[in-house]
Amino acid sequence: MAKKIRTSVTAFFFLFFTFLLAQPSPQAADKLELPALKKNEVILYHKGFTISYNQHHYQANWVAYHLSKTNASAKIERKGAFRPDPRFPQCAGNQDYSKSGYDKGHLFPAANSWTPEIMTESFYYTNVSPQDPSFNRGIWKKLETLEREWAIQYDDIYVVTGPVLKSTRGTIGKGVSVPVYYYKVILDYSLPEYKGIGFLLKNEKEDASRLSHYAISIDSVESVTGIDFFPALPDELETTLESKADITKWNWTVKKEE
After folding, report:
1. Which residues neighbour 123 within 8 Å (Cβ) at sequence distance 6 or greater?
2. What are the start-end ranges of the E strands in 23-116?
3. Which of 123, 129, 146, 232 is the most exposed place for a label (fewest CB within 10 A)?
4. C-beta separation of 103 from 137 below 8 A
5. Which ranges of the chain would DSSP assign to H, the alpha helix?
6. So what's the pLDDT on residue 256?
7. CA 174/CA 118 separation, integer angstroms
8. Is there a contact between 35 and 231 (Cβ–Cβ < 8 Å)?
9. Which candidate in 56, 66, 106, 213 is catalytic?
10. CB-based burial label for 67 (10 Å; 0-12, 13-18, 19+)
11. The pTM is what?
12. Which tens digit of pLDDT belongs to each residue from 145-201?
């Protein structure tokens, strides 16, 4: 009898720990914004966003985040200095960008931060990429402002953004790749209407007054990047939302921020 009890207890704990190990990370659970993760991908979880970091290119493959109406409406003073990411300190640094001619372009925008801690995180070097100054301060900034407007108007949006690392124009510093293109995909998963849209922008001065002209389907961005966006959506809905970009479903009015 005692032997049977020991065997049953052993089997119970084996099944229990097997169950625990099979569960997704609590940080990764219920994150609709996360793309499909790849084997051996370096994933960095922060309070405001999640990063897939590319060690070869010294920047992110993607940065994903959820932006709610409440968080997008927060007014946090832009305050911070670029610094290494404590979760991946061997990332790029100031010496790589110094005198390069490129801006340290945020992927998760500093202006999206809704707490001082997230503002600090936004200045990690894992969250920046070499951007042409006219691009970073022009059309890219306007698109960031627009996504905050959409978060407020549509209550919640889910965003994935980053450089297209399949196409680069050389390197700076110790080997930080300079992307030719950047992308952003946005999902509105709130009623009364679900919708999705993508953008592909060249890393140079573009006409910021014509943002809607750069809109493409999420499927098109997937083809360019090789990234599977929003895999947590029901399959049929994912297919529908990602197959086309209907610009008439989105408000393109951008308010001037203070």
Report:
1. 80, 81, 82, 83, 110
2. 42-45, 50-54, 59-68, 103-106
3. 232
4. yes
5. 2-22, 69-72, 94-97, 116-122, 133-136, 139-154, 218-225, 235-242
6. 64
7. 27
8. yes
9. 106
10. buried
11. 0.87
12. 999 999 999 999 999 999 999 989 999 999 999 999 999 999 999 999 999 999 999
Q: How far apart are CA 6 and CA 185, in angstroms?
A: 54
Q: 180 vs 91, 205, 253, CA distance in Å?
A: 21, 12, 27
**Relative orientation angle of helices 235-242 and 218-225, to the nearest 10 degrees:** 90
Are 218 and 230 spatial neighbours (Cβ–Cβ below 8 Å)? Answer: yes
Q: Where are the domains of the chain?
A: 41-249
| Secondary structure (3-state) at 27 | coil
Checking 231-239 for CB contacts under 8 A at 24+ apart, the result is 231/34, 231/35, 231/36, 232/31, 232/32, 232/34, 233/32, 233/187, 233/189, 237/194
- The tokens 């990690």 sit on which residue? 124
106 an active-site residue? yes
- Token pair 């200045």 in the structure block, residue: 123
CATH of domain 41-249: 3.40.570.10
CB atoms within 10 A of CB 206: 20
Q: Distance of alpha carbon 31 from its chain centroid, rounded?
A: 12
